[in-house]
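Final report, Chapter 2: Outcomes

The project's central promise was a pipeline that accepts a single protein chain and returns its three-dimensional structure in a standardized token representation, suitable for archiving and comparison. That pipeline is now operational. To close this chapter, we reproduce one record exactly as it appears in the project archive, with the input sequence first and the structure output second.
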Amino acid sequence: MGGITNGELDPTVIAATKINAATGQPNNYDPAFHGKIGYDKQLSSDFRVRITASGYTDQSANSNTLFGGDRTGSHYYDVMSSQSIANGTTLNDENDYNAFSGRYNPGFTEQVQTFMGNLFLKYKGLQFFGTYEMAQGREITEVTDRKATQYAGDLVYRFPAKKENFWVGVRYNALTATMFGDPNAITIQREAASAGWFVTKNIMMKAEYVNQIYLNYPNANILNGGRFDGYMLEASIGF
């Protein structure tokens, strides 16, 4: 699959007035190119394999939102925010917006190139899903690109046989990236374990333990030396 779009979540027909720091010229609204290739095969009645690779590139944008356009919000609900920020009274940096407080956004708003590879293996009730993602880009005021790399792996066992509406699983997720204005790379690591139940195809309940740490953040950043761990009960209804 391949495609081309205008690269804009909020498109405009008004000519750009901002100057692209890398070119010294008024900003362009370039098209975005994206593509995906995959192989999916049920090798036997018990074993399935799926391998996919996808890419996205946009050389210039009014406001590129590939990593910032998701509206589902933060999963861990302001756990690493200060009290005033959690109360919604202060907005002053990229970690302060309550809806996204539990996420890392590299801020590639002007230019972005990204590649993702995924591997899915399922043998009877045991399944593995792995992700490798590499991205680079910049904001309009930056001259050179920054990079971000992510690894993730899920190992899940679903039961009972044929129905598979209960599960137990573990997950590891690690991100290494450089932030705007800081040449040093930061790292975020998460380990999680969960057990859950699909009450119906649309209703899910789970119990989870999570441990997350933040490494090498600047001294002035609230996430410097940050860490949280704990238990959570959660339910969702999806259609």
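Archive annotation: Helices lie at 83-86.
This record, like all others produced under the grant, will remain available to the consortium after the project formally closes.
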